[in-house]
UniProtKB/TrEMBL annotation:
Listed InterPro entries: Meroterpenoid_MTases, SAM-dependent_MTases_sf
Listed name of the protein: Methyltransferase domain-containing protein
Highest taxon in the source lineage: Eukaryota
Family affiliation: Belongs to the class I-like SAM-binding methyltransferase superfamily.
SUPFAM superfamilies: S-adenosyl-L-methionine-dependent methyltransferases
Species lineage: Eukaryota, Fungi, Dikarya, Ascomycota, Pezizomycotina
Amino acid sequence: MLMSVTRIQRDRAFKVVRNPPHRSQLCTHPRNLTKGTLDLDLHLCPAYAEILERVKNGYQFLDLGCCFAQEVRLLVSDGAFSQNVFGVDLVEDFINLGYDLFLDKEKINAKFLVSNLFDTDSIVSKELTGKLDIIHASNFFHLWSWTKQIEASKAVVKLLADKPGSLIIGSQVGSKKSRMTTMPGLILTLFTQSVRTFKLMRGEILRDLGVDFEVKAFETEFLDKEAFMGGRRSLSFEVGFYGEECLVDTSYLGSGFLMR
């Protein structure tokens, strides 16, 4: 799918990923270049068709921790207006490598920002707080401890527009039982959450932000079982404001997703 979206040859794509400029610096970053760096998951969300339609009609979308921003390109290639799409990453080299990979620096009109989510004076905090309709945050929250994941969740919730239909979606590394774990190829230990602990975050966020939401989460096995052994799972989630505009049919999701 990625290759058809970007119209580039497979060999060239992986040459850019495996041998980027400043590779030594990039590989010391927690989100370093691993086997799944180019994975796409946004289109797997049950609400993807509705998300796409909304962005086509003026809703503001953010890919948080966008890395090469392949999800941004997928959304735009499917017809979303790029002026309504933002990508944010802490590492500017990732964004620049995305331009190298997709050969579209002069073509794409999506706005890419280099910013730290935890910095209240950052460009993201100043420009986007309370303005975003849909936030995609995959392989993001699991980079930190339990306490820091709660802090990150609060910061992301603050970016949402305060209206029915506002939405946070994504997936991350999870576990049957929450624990500290080391992922293959990464330089740090992560707190991988279970469905139960992910639900517990609701109380922490409700207490501090005064917003109410329902928490749901579901897990699936990684497709690459060999790389992710030892009980690790993919934990998917969704955060959405209550209201008639809610995107997701929760009966379809069963025990899945995080709803606000």
